[in-house]
Amino acid sequence: MYSEKGKYSVEVCFSPLSWPLFEKDNTVVIITDIFRATTSICAAFQNKVKSIIPVADIEESIAYKEKGYIVSGERDGKKLECAEFGNSPFNFMEPGLQNKTVVMNTTNGTQAIKMVQKGDNLVCMGAFSNRDAICNWATAQKRNIIIFCAGWKNRFSLEDSLFAGSAVDYIIKNGNGDFHTMCDSAIASVDMWEEAKSNPRQYIEKAAHRHRLRKMGLDDILDYSMQLNINQCVPVLKGIEIVDIA
Amino acid sequence: MYSEKGKYSVEVCFSPLSWPLFEKDNTVVIITDIFRATTSICAAFQNKVKSIIPVADIEESIAYKEKGYIVSGERDGKKLECAEFGNSPFNFMEPGLQNKTVVMNTTNGTQAIKMVQKGDNLVCMGAFSNRDAICNWATAQKRNIIIFCAGWKNRFSLEDSLFAGSAVDYIIKNGNGDFHTMCDSAIASVDMWEEAKSNPRQYIEKAAHRHRLRKMGLDDILDYSMQLNINQCVPVLKGIEIVDIA
User: Could you tell me which of B209, B198, B117, B202 has the C-alpha nearest to residue B155?
Assistant: First the structure.
């Protein structure tokens, strides 16, 4: 798996700080923010939400709200004042959101989406919940792939890196021999996945963010967020919107 | 090990890019650059070199050379024109260097040393070759510890992170109950060490840097650099010099 064979590369960027070292043209970028942006985006599309507009600034969220949009958002796990609800995946499962567009603003995830929103890259959203679906779509694009971990305030995050490892592992094993990696962060994340894969939910108990969630009373989303392949969503950025192209 | 018990923390900074997120006062910083700065610094002290002056700029190396200093140095694995020799640990084992001061300039390691060279932090150099010695000294200082991986051009590096994992593991198990970690990068690096520790030399075969070394014809240092506890050096930064205080 660690050979230089396979005409396309798969790499892992552990934090937004490192993005300038990885940024290239003509790649597929899979953004992941397990707790909680990308898990919630997949939950939304499973619930037939029409589209999601990711925004990074609170002022932008307020402006959308004034135009009549449904606005969700949080900072450091707390609902934004301008938002109708926070970023828990459960919030996006409400039947009233079906066929609606939601404006989303999160601490790390939407910031990451804004960073890569340029050039000719194909940008999509990955989570444990849609891992196989998003990886199958990514490999079918026949381009180099970068998995971009949103992290926590520019820090390395265990849950995002663990997802990255599971995705690299899947892509290399199921990518028709087209993919290789020579990226140390990809190799390390696959090793984490090797250790975690028999019970990812248990593995993540030791993550710093898991303690952060518990302190904020938000650990109800853990069981949901660590489940593999519970939907088939392929959330892809098209212009300013994320839509499900599955 | 992942509890909040233990009054001092141990954290791992995966790359110089992330250093601003970790930088604090009153800590012990263990810098590691396995291929090759810190491994070579330990080899030098085992050979009774008197001191090492780390420099980051080539102009500075040239200025020291003009003052009559012995200058070593490389960029991207190639010897600097102004240097008498490169940064292989074997170069530092020459008997002629005993009781001498050597000025050292490396691609990643000395750059990292310069970054942390301020404030009241205690700065020391760790490698597989002096792991127990440096960790025992670090824990005895009764301060928070940060392991700073020099990486490769600001990227995550498998060998430096693997050393970090082995050091965190040792510090928590042998730190008299004084140390804990709540740092995701520390947790991930310990997991890497768990997978690698039965044969670190074999594990590192998959690292990108290992391929880089092979291409440059420098892979003769691999066996040497991956050996655990072959010396008892405690290289500590004192002013502008690194000295062995063991």
Answer: B209
A:B CB pairs within 8 Å: 80
Query: What is the distance in angstroms between the CA of the first residue and the CA of the last residue of chain B?
Result: 28
Q: Say if B183 falls within a structural domain.
A: yes
What is the C-alpha separation between B29 and A16, in angstroms, rounded?
24
Total residue count of chain A as it appears in this document: 246
User: In this structure, what token pair is assigned to residue A60?
Assistant: 């932008």
Angle at which helices A158-174 and B184-196 pack, to 10 degrees? Answer: 50
Compute the radius of gyration of chain A from its Cα atoms: 17
Q: What is residue B4's predicted lDDT score, i.e. its pLDDT?
A: 58
Q: Which residue has the tokens 């849609």?
A: A130
Q: Which of B154, B169, B184 to mutate to test the interface with A (most CBs of A within 10 A)?
A: B184
The helix-helix angle for B37-46 and B109-116 (nearest 10°) equals 90
Whether the predicted pLDDT of A3 surpasses 80: no
| A170, part of any domain | yes
Minimum-distance CB partner of B208 among A14, A155, A182: A182
In a domain? residue B33: yes
ipTM of this predicted complex? 0.91
Contact at CB, B18 and A211, closer than 8 angstroms: no
pLDDT score, position B209? 67
B117 CB near a chain A CB, below 8 Å?
no
Across the interface, whether the CB atoms of B191 and A187 are under 8 A apart is answered: no
> pTM above 0.90?
yes
Q: Is residue B80 part of a domain?
A: yes
What CATH number does the domain containing B176 carry? 3.90.1560.10
Residue B66 at interface with chain A, using a CB cutoff of 8 Å: no
C-alpha distances (whole Å) from B191 to each of A57, A182, B163, B166 are 36, 20, 12, 9
d(C-alpha A20, C-alpha B56), whole Å = 22
How many domains, in total, are found in chain B?
1
Mean predicted confidence (pLDDT) in A123-136: 98
Domain holding B171, by residue range, is 8-244
From residue B200, how far is each of A7, A200, B43, B193, B226 by CA, in Å?
A: 29, 25, 19, 8, 7
A-chain CB neighbours of B165 within 8 Å are none
